[in-house]
Amino acid sequence: MPDDANLRSSVRAELARQGLSARAMNARLGWGLHHLTRRLSGEVEFRSSELEAIASELGIPVSRFYDPPRDAVPAS
Predict the structure, then answer these.
(1) Going along 1-76, which residue ranges are E strands?
(2) From first to last of its 76 residues, what are the pLDDT tens digits of the chain?
(3) Sign of CA dihedral 26, 39, 53, 49
(4) Domain range summary for the chain, segments of one domain joined by +
(5) Handedness of CA 41, 43, 48, 54 (dihedral sign)
């Protein structure tokens, strides 16, 4: 399982790959304005149910966040 920073990076990369902002994903999921941003910044940890909801909305398996394709996450 990746550390929190890698998990956040994987979620960010997948949103970018699909051309979505955190604000757009919040709207799609019916979350408050800063819900996803707070998780992507590390202020609040992701819950597994939130990762499942994001993955479902993106049409990907949640495992993609834990083991992303090599080209999906930019090198640090």
Answers:
(1) none
(2) 456 888 999 999 999 999 999 999 999 999 998 999 999 999 999 999 999 999 999 999 999 998 866 655 455 4
(3) negative
(4) 4-60
(5) negative
Token digits for 9? 């990076």
Measured CA to CA in angstroms, residue 52 lies from 10, 49, 56 at distances of 14, 5, 6
Q: Please tell me the number of Cα atoms within 13 Å of 44 on its side-chain side.
A: 11
pTM of the model: 0.84
Question: How far apart, in whole angstroms, are the C-alpha atoms of residue 17 and residue 52?
Answer: 18
CATH 1.10.260 fits 4-60, yes or no: yes
Dig out the tokens for 43 from the structure: 């202020």
